[in-house]
């Protein structure tokens, strides 16, 4: 019983790699970075249009427009720095999503191999924590169902073996023993 509690305990782990599912994360990072870039362009162009319209209506403010135009390269450098920050932040955010997806993929493979005792444990702050709960509930229900099926199979097998052992089984004895042996292999590959 203590072994099962330890096996079910949440493991302490730390992912060392930021890009776990590169394709997914690159697409996510590109989407966020391009969205912010387009927003910068829209706001920047709107600001330039608004200021030029304001200054063109007031000729005395023309030197201010020229001064602002000379700051264009500095604005582009700042925008590039902001985009690098957005790219880094999108990598961190995508990691919080891609890590759990990677973990679920591995967990599905483990369950498909027959280990019904396996559960998913995500790090605090990872996305998809609700899915973790649902996945673990599903695995628990499946484990319980298979355990009950194994118990039923074991009961039927023992009844078949008992029937084969009776003297009146006669010609059916070999068939009953074969059926009992076949039942012994049912669900044997699953760890419950």
Written description of the protein model:
The chain is mainly alpha-helical and 192 residues long. It folds into two domains: 18-102; 114-192, no CATH class. Helices cover 74% and strands 0% of the residues. The chain is built from six helices and no strands. The chain has helices spanning 2-8, 22-56, 62-70, 72-112, 129-165, 173-185. Helix 2 runs antiparallel to helix 4 and helix 5 (129-165) packs antiparallel against helix 6 (173-185). The longest helix has 41 residues, at 72-112. The protein is rod-shaped and about 120 Å long. The mean pLDDT is 83.
Write the layout of secondary structure elements.
Elements: H1 2-8, H2 22-56, H3 62-70, H4 72-112, H5 129-165, H6 173-185
């Amino acid at each position: 019983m203590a072994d099962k509690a330890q096996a079910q305990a949440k493991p302490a782990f730390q992912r060392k790699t930021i890009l776990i599912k590169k394709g997914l994360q690159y697409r996510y990072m590109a989407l966020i970075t391009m969205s912010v870039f387009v927003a910068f362009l829209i706001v920047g162009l709107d600001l330039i249009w608004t200021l030029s319209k304001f200054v063109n209506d007031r000729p005395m403010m023309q030197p201010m427009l020229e001064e602002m135009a000379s700051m264009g390269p500095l604005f582009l450098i700042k925008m590039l720095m902001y985009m690098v920050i957005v790219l880094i932040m999108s990598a961190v955010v995508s990691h919080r999503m891609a890590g759990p997806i990677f973990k679920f993929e591995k967990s599905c493979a483990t369950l498909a191999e027959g280990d019904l005792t396996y559960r998913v444990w995500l790090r605090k702050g990872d996305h998809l924590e609700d899915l973790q709960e649902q996945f673990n509930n599903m695995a628990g229900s499946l484990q319980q169902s298979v355990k009950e099926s194994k118990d039923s199979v074991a009961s039927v097998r023992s009844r078949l073996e008992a029937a084969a052992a009776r003297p009146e089984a006669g010609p059916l004895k070999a068939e009953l023993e074969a059926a009992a042996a076949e039942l012994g292999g049912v669900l044997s590959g699953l760890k419950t």
